[in-house]
Design goal:
- The structure is a single chain.
- The protein is of the alpha+beta class.
- 21% of the residues lie in helices and 28% in strands.
- The protein contains 7 helices and 16 strands.
- It has helices spanning 24-32, 96-99, 122-125, 131-149, 222-234, 282-289, 304-313; strands at 37-42, 45-49, 52-53, 56-57, 70-76, 79-85, 117-119, 161-163, 168-170, 177-178, 183-192, 195-200, 212-215, 238-249, 254-263, 276-281.
- The strands form 3 sheets. Strands 1, 2, 3, 4, 5, 6 and 7 form a 7-stranded mixed sheet that branches. Strands 11, 12, 13, 14, 15 and 16 form a 6-stranded mixed sheet that branches.
- A hairpin with a 2-residue loop joins strand 1 and strand 2 (45-49).
- It is globular and about 60 Å long.
- The N and C termini lie close together (10 Å).
- Mean pLDDT is 94; it is low at 1-5.
- Bound molecules: zinc ion.
Length: 317
């Protein structure tokens, strides 16, 4: 299924230009080029201007917090694009409660930038971004999380170093090279006749239900991970499994494999992971999507669960 224009973060840009990451002369040239641009992220929140990413020139003051760690995203329309993690910045009057929320509503403004330049939660603005901006923001967010959490060599424990314009970390002690991680996750539209299986995890906003999902374990195929997760979480047995589409999901570093699965049994037996699971009819799901269902709220727009459910309702899956 061609999903490029429909799954958020499923877009791309002209050229990741991987061959330029380790080219010191070319990197120096692009960094000195006044047309090169960078988007700063603060604690995973991209700089936004209205509905677009807030691209700034490479000499912008706001990049001073991490000028030696410019992540090279690649070329778009021939222009070099970078991202910079400025989490070292400490805004005034930080609202830590908001920042810790599932859906952080707070916005941060840096004094060196115009008033409409704001750091915002990516979940809140992801569906407004162009496909290219969304793909670049998700790539930057995932890579910066990897750098923050992989500062030490997994082989010998020494502090590792930023390399290849942000796409690698090298260990100065044992020379091990480390590459960014992406964690495979299956998310599945489990149906039986006219009904779909939804679940909710503890701590989710009230009324929010979504498709079941879980990490793929070493040694598993996507299909066997789907069957295992559904059985573990709900006791429901599944037969045929089909891959539908995928979505990079930088919260923090997943690649979601969207699948459909045919249930062979109805009875739900919850494990500890889920707070609730239930079968929802097509008619009820129409109400959920219309925002008029009495108890269930729809999966968030932009998430692959929303995409799978919407296409199932439309008869395309
Ligand atoms: Zn090492």
């Amino acid at each position: 299924m061609d999903n490029l224009d429909t799954v958020t973060f499923g877009g791309f840009w002209d050229d990741r230009a991987a061959h330029l990451r380790g080219d010191a002369a070319e990197q120096a040239h692009m960094r000195a080029d006044p047309s090169s641009r960078a988007v700063p992220l603060w604690r995973g929140k991209p700089l936004m201007v209205g509905d677009a990413l807030g691209w700034v020139s490479l000499d912008a003051d706001v990049l001073d917090y991490a000028r030696d760690a410019l992540l090279f995203l690649g070329l778009s329309n021939g222009v070099a694009h970078y991202a910079v993690d400025i989490s070292a910045w400490e805004p005034d009057a930080l609202d830590e409660t908001s920042l810790a929320m599932f859906f952080d509503p707070s916005e941060q403004h840096h004094a060196s930038l115009p008033p409409d330049h704001l750091f915002r939660e990516l979940r809140a603005c992801m569906t407004q971004l162009s496909a290219t901006d969304a793909a670049m923001a998700s790539t930057a967010r995932a890579l910066f999380h990897w750098h923050r959490t992989h500062g030490f060599c997994a082989a010998c424990g020494s502090a590792s170093e930023w390399a290849m314009a942000g796409w690698q970390r090298n260990c100065p002690s044992c020379s091990a090279q480390h590459f960014p991680r992406t964690d495979p996750v299956v998310i599945m539209l489990v149906t039986r006749n006219n009904r779909v299986l939804l679940g909710r995890s503890p701590g989710w906003p009230e009324g929010m239900y979504s498709l079941l999902a879980g990490f793929v374990e070493p040694g598993e195929t996507i299909e066997s991970a789907v069957r295992r997760e559904v059985q573990e979480e709900t006791g429901v047995k599944t037969g045929a499994v089909q891959y539908v589409t995928s979505q990079p999901w930088p919260f923090p570093a997943s690649l979601m494999f969207g699948c459909s699965a045919e249930a062979l049994s109805d009875e739900i037996t919850l494990d500890d992971e889920l707070e609730d699971a239930l079968w929802v009819s097509r008619e009820d799901l129409v109400d959920v999507f219309g925002g008029v269902h009495a108890t269930i709220k729809p999966a968030r727009k932009g998430a692959i669960a929303h995409y799978l459910l919407e296409n199932w309702l439309a008869g395309r899956i």
